[in-house]
Amino acid sequence: MYRKFLISEVVKRYNISRPTLIYYDNIDLLKPSHNETNGYRYYTYEDMDKLELILALKETGLSLKSIKSFMSDPSHEGSIDLLSTQKKKIDKKIKELQKLQIVLDKRINMISQYQNVKLYKGIKLDHYSEITICKQDLNYNDLTPYETASRKLKTALDQSPTSYGSIISKYGLCLGKNELFNQEFDHYRYVFNYLSHPIDDAETIEIPANYFVRCLHHGPYNTISETFKHLLNYITLNAYQIIGDAYIIPLIDLWATKSKNDFIREILIPVEI
C-alpha cells in the first residue's frame, strides 16, 4: 500500500499553510491523489514531488498561472526556456536593486555629510582647492526653468554609475558675476552638482582654486537678496575684488526640516585679496 499523507503532515513538512494547499487544489494546480469518503485530503509521494516542483518554480518568481501552464505539458526544453526567461527577469531586477542600493548609500552618505557641517556665524574668508562640478544651464524661456534644468542634470548624472542617484534638492545654484554686480539675485545661470571626477554624460567645469568670501543664508530663496547685499558690502569694505561667479550650496533643506524658514544655504563668492 502506498503511503498517504494528511494535509497536516504536508503543511508541517513543507512549512506551507493549509489555505495555500486548498487553494492549489481549487485551481487544479495540485489536487490530492486520494480524497476519501471521510472528507480528508491525502497526498502521495508523487503529489509531494509535484509540490516541491511548484515551490521551486515559485521561488524563482514565476506566477502560479505560468507554473500551471508549464506543469500541464512539461519537457526539458520547456524547463530550460521557462527558467532562462525567468533568469533574465531576475537579472534585470538585480540591476534595479543594485541601483537602488547605490541611491540609498549615496543619500545616506550625502545627508550625513550635510548633517556634520559645522554651522557658523558672520562672514568668513577661506581658500578652496579646485572643485569639479557638472552643470545644466537654466533656460528662462521654459515654464519652470529650475525644475527643467534640475531634471535634465539628474538624467545626465544617472547615466554614470559613479554619479547615479544624486538628490535634486541638493543641487546648487550659480549666480553669474554680471548678475551679481547688477544685483539681479533671482536670475541664476545654472544648477550644479559636485563630482569626484569629470564624466562624459554631463557638462563639467573646474572651479579654480581661490579665496572665497562665504556666509550662511537662513530662510527661503526669496529672501536671499539681503544676504547677497550684506556680502557685497563686506567685499567692498575690505577692498576685495570679485573675480568669478557666486555659488549657492544647500546645507539644510527638506531632508532635515519641513519649514523653509529653517533652510540654510551657503553663499560663496570668489575674490582676489
TrEMBL record:
The keyword Transcription applies. Keywords: DNA-binding, Repressor, Transcription, Transcription regulation. SMART domains: HTH_MERR. Residues 1-73 form the HTH merR-type domain. The keyword Protein transport does not apply. InterPro entries: DNA-bd_dom_put_sf (IPR009061), MerR-type_HTH_dom (IPR000551), MerR_fam (IPR047057), Reg_factor_effector_dom_sf (IPR011256). Pfam families: MerR_1. This is MerR family transcriptional regulator.
